[in-house]
Amino acid sequence: MLHYAAVFLVIALIGALLGFTGIAAGAVEIAKILFFIFIILFAVSLFMGLLRRK
């Protein structure tokens, strides 16, 4: 999932450089959403892993 966030970020940067502001803005929003989902899932899995060890 982090890979997809990075891909959308690269698409947004390329779109912004070429002047496609609508595409760039959409790709940035998708990348931000995927990144935050990744962070939440990482925190949950880390917490569950700590609970299993005890």
TrEMBL record:
Q: Does the keyword Disulfide bond apply?
A: no
Entry's Gene Ontology cellular component terms: plasma membrane
Record has Membrane as a keyword: yes
> Which of UniProt's keywords are assigned here?
Cell membrane, Membrane, Transmembrane, Transmembrane helix
Q: Which InterPro entries match?
A: DUF1328
Q: Which residues cross the membrane?
A: 7-27, 33-51
The record's comment on protein family reads:
Belongs to the UPF0391 family.
What is this protein called in UniProt? Answer: UPF0391 membrane protein IPJ38_04570
Taxonomic classification, please? Bacteria, Pseudomonadati, Pseudomonadota, Betaproteobacteria, Rhodocyclales
